[in-house]
Write a structure and sequence with these properties.
Layout lengths: L10 H9 L3 E4 L11 E2 L5 E2 L4 H12 L3 E5 L5 H10 L3 E3 L5 H11 L7 E4 L6 H6 L2 E4 L5 H6 L2 E2 L8 H12 L8
Parallel strand pairs: 1-4, 1-6, 4-5, 6-7, 7-8
Antiparallel strand pairs: 2-3
Amino acid sequence: MHSTDNVGVGPAALRAKARRLKLMAFDVDGIMTSGELHYGPEGERVKIFNTLDGHGLKQLARAGVQLAIITGRSSLMVARRASDLGIEHVIQGREDKGVALRTLADQLGLDASQVGYAGDDEPDVPALEWAAVAFSVPNAHQCAQQVADMITQRRGGEGAVREMCDFIVSALPRSEPGA
């Protein structure tokens, strides 16, 4: 179901790391979207998000993991999507994603062992390397795939975020009925 062969981290070890996550941050273009940029007749950009991903993000938040978006571009569409999904931490216009992720984690009182990140290109590599669990997608640049712990089966914008969320939720401790 998932590829972890690229860095030699077995599924059990990866699940153990995912079990500790308190924050999961996502790049947008290439992870939450296909990475394509569509321009309308007035020059406006259009981003297409996947509803499967949206539901997965909501499930992850309900499971107690805080969500964040860290993206190099600034877009009203990203702010709107984050608002629709209840994603509180939205950092836009940042190419230094590793610094942005570490700063957010510090603000939340978290260390790297409690943070996951999903990215697909060179600006994401420092964040992928710092996070305890690093996700990427099959249509990502090789530099991101090489440092990822897991590469999803689905491509960015086509349900990859849902795969990531499902994996994390399945790894989290389950509360006992009535607890």
